[in-house]
């Protein structure tokens, strides 16, 4: 994700994480209804175990679900009513990581029916998004199983903690957001630590476009005169928050760049001038990717694109996989757009190919994407990343809001407050400290294969790439409550 504003000891973190998890568990216990408690006590007989609602993420403890890993989602949506409501059928295939007499998934819409391996299952709900499923037969550890969910609702009418990832303007309707959005349009294990394949079909009135992630496999089945079904297929696994759907009057431009299929979509609700400016900028995506490949190796996916809805966003863009979503004002800003495009396309390596183990690892994603925006300018003949470092450090040095945030444990309410400034400063300092050969080799190794990784893993891998003791560097740039004093030992030129 990009900010709409283009301006400027891990052991302690683990103790905080354990405390947060313990507090979250107590709160969950207090909120569960008496009926459900009685039911679970009865089912907790010897030999019966089940999953938990939530993975214990330090900032979003109820996000995701324990007990299984999802392999793929097949999502069928019907938005034919044209009023923002949907009916859906999603089937997900998963593998049990423990015996499951019951398990949970995340969905904010009304559940009509659930089948597990073809048999009807009992369903109950706890809170806004947690749905509990009890199959007829428990799923044994190691077994692959399928879950078919029928559901319906109006996503825009659902808010959780006063927030919604639904973006609407006129005839246009979209669902995307960070950290949680999938529960508003499909049932999921909604946490970045469980990437999966995604296949999306969307039925809409004829003449309306439906855009999603991956490859456009087809756009009209031909079965209905008044409706079209758009089918999108992602060839590589993705975290659930990296999936999106957008429906409305879009101008689509399809093509092939460097052997990969491209789809750019710009809302026709924008002015003609805005549409042209947005498309002109999106068309530079291929050239930007080629620059990134010189630093990090091959682009990790088989599709490339971008989407520009007309609804104003609270952020500059979101790194939805293969097809980032851009705010129309930001992508048509001639000064800001090149940086924005580089940031979101960098996320395809940092955040999408290698996604977060937990939400307190967000610096692994946003820090890198922000630094890459500097590096692209450097590699295309502009000022160096070292010059950007000096300028940014001078502007931010006395800003307590930036240095008061520990990047290794920013807290739920401050996830994005400092990372866009402190993150790239830290990486440029590392580059200076260990040299280009080690720095870019480290970056290529980090992104060479799909993975979910933590900041602790980054620290270990970075230290393994150099003989320089990086302990003082990590303490100063990521955790210290004040700006580092200029010193070659901390990566200052």
TrEMBL record:
Coiled coil: none annotated. Its EC number is 3.4.11.2. It is an enzyme of class 3 (hydrolase). It catalyses: Release of an N-terminal amino acid, Xaa-|-Yaa- from a peptide, amide or arylamide. Xaa is preferably Ala, but may be most amino acids including Pro (slow action). When a terminal hydrophobic residue is followed by a prolyl residue, the two may be released as an intact Xaa-Pro dipeptide. GO terms for molecular function: alanyl aminopeptidase activity; metallopeptidase activity; zinc ion binding. Pfam families: Peptidase_M1. Its cofactor is Zn(2+). InterPro entries: Aminopeptidase_N-like_N_sf, Peptidase_M1, Peptidase_M1_aminopeptidases, Peptidase_M1_dom, Peptidase_M4/M1_CTD_sf. Keywords: Hydrolase, Metal-binding, Metalloprotease, Protease, Zinc. Residues 330-441 form the Peptidase M1 membrane alanine aminopeptidase domain. CDD domains: M1_APN_like (cd09603). GO terms for biological process: proteolysis. Belongs to the peptidase M1 family. This is Aminopeptidase N.
């Amino acid at each position: 994700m990009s900010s709409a504003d283009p301006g400027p000891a891990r052991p302690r973190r683990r103790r905080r994480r354990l405390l947060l998890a313990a507090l979250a568990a107590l709160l969950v216990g207090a909120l569960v209804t008496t009926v459900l408690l009685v039911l679970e006590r009865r089912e907790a007989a010897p030999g019966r175990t089940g999953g938990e609602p939530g993975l214990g993420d330090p900032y979003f403890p109820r996000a995701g679900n324990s007990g299984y890993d999802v392999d793929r989602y097949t999502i069928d949506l019907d938005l034919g009513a044209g009023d923002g409501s949907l009916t859906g059928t999603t089937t997900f295939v998963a593998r049990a990581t423990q015996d499951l007499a019951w398990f949970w998934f995340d969905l904010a819409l009304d559940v009509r029916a659930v089948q597990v391996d073809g048999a009807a299952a009992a369903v109950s709900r706890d809170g806004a998004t947690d749905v509990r499923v009890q199959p007829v037969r428990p799923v044994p550890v190691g077994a692959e199983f399928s879950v078919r969910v029928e559901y319906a609702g109006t996503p825009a009418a659902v808010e959780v903690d006063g927030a919604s990832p639904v973006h609407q303007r006129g005839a246009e309707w979209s669902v995307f957001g960070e950290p949680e959005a999938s529960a508003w349009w499909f049932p999921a294990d909604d946490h970045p630590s469980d990437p999966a394949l995604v296949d999306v079909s969307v039925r809409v009135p004829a003449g309306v476009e439906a855009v999603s992630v991956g490859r456009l496999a087809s756009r009209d089945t031909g079965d209905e005169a008044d409706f079209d079904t758009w089918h999108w297929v992602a060839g590589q696994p993705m975290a659930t928050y990296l999936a999106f759907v957008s429906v409305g009057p879009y101008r689509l431009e399809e093509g092939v760049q460097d052997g990969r299929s491209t789809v750019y979509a710009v809302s026709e609700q924008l002015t003609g001038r805005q549409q042209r400016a947005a498309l002109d900028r999106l068309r530079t995506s291929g050239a930007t990717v080629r620059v990134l490949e010189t630093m990090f190796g091959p682009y990790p996916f088989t599709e490339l694109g971008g989407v520009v809805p007309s609804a104003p966003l609270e952020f500059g863009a979101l790194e939805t996989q293969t097809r980032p979503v851009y705010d129309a004002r930001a992508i048509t800003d001639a000064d800001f757009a090149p940086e924005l495009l580089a940031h979101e396309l960098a996320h395809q390596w940092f955040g999408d190919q290698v996604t977060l183990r937990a939400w307190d690892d967000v610096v692994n994603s946003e820090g890198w994407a922000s630094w890459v925006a500097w590096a692209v300018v450097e590699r295309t003949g502009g000022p160096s990343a070292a010059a950007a470092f000096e300028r940014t450090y001078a502007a931010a040095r006395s800003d307590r809001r930036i240095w008061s945030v520990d990047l290794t444990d920013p807290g739920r309410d401050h996830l994005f407050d400092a990372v866009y400034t402190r993150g790239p400063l830290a990486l440029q300092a590392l580059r200076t400290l260990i040299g280009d050969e080690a720095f870019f080799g480290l970056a290529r190794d980090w992104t060479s294969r799909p993975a979910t990784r933590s900041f602790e893993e980054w620290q270990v891998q970075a230290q393994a790439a150099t003989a320089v003791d990086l302990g003082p560097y990590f303490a100063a740039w990521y955790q210290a409550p004040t700006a580092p004093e200029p010193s070659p030992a901390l990566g200052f030129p």
